[in-house]
Amino acid sequence: MISRRLLSSLLLLVLLAALAPIPVAAGDETCPRGCQCLTQEKAKELGYSPCSDKMIPCGKDETGKRLYCFSPTAKCPAQCRCLSEEEAKELGYTKLCQNQRTPCGTDALGRTKYCFQVPVSRCPDGCVCLSNEDAQAQGLKVNCLDSFGKPIICGIIDADRGLFKYCFRKPEQGNCQYNYNLGKCVGQCSAGKKCQLNTIYRDPKTGAVTYAECHCK
């Protein structure tokens, strides 16, 4: 039968072993405050991100696998998106959210993502700010573009899901439309433009026009 003193000694040894810090190899660093020393697999499982731009080594586990400093993934503010630098460059996002390099995850290639400010602009004259659904309901299909040739974002619906409002070009004033009786476009357009056929669909059997759309061009 184990004596009470021996049992107490064993419990103390177990407690000390649990509290003992992970051994740090020569050249390794201790993790910054708020970060944890984990394997890359464990960090991925927890959804953690590296604590800095470069992976900070902090030791090895009992199997000899390298450990690095990771922190819980930050959630970007409502007006920002979590993107890798490559994704941000492709979308034309140049400003970090709140001017801080905040890690918020990793992409499929293991590249660190950061919170980037979604560039929201005021629509230029002749354009209106709408969601894609509202624009479709109003029959608006043409986006107003920025200097990079990309649709202008004018509002945020849900940045996490990439849902935004965009600037859509307003239809030309006038009554440019297709007259099914005359079989042609009729109506007035602004100076320098003509009412012309844009889209037409015919019945494959009879050849009759089933739908036609005219625009001022």
Describe this structure in words.
This protein has helices spanning 4-19, 40-46, 85-91, 132-137; strands at residues 36-38, 48-50, 57-60, 66-72, 80-84, 103-106, 112-117, 127-131, 153-158, 163-169, 177-179, 184-186, 195-202, 209-216. The protein is 17% helix and 33% strand. It is elongated and about 85 Å long. A hairpin with a 5-residue loop joins strand 3 (57-60) and strand 4 (66-72). The chain has 4 domains: 29-72; 80-117, no CATH class; 127-169, no CATH class; 177-216, no CATH class. It is built from 4 helices and 14 strands.
Order of SSEs: HEHEEEEHEEEHEEEEEE
Q: What's the mean pLDDT score? A: 81
Residue share in helices?
10-25%
Number of strands: 14
> How many helices in DSSP terms?
4
Low-confidence blocks of residues:
14-27
Hey, roughly how much beta strand do the residues contain? 25-35%
Major sheet details: 4 strands, antiparallel
Distance between the termini: 98 Å
Report the principal-axis shape: elongated
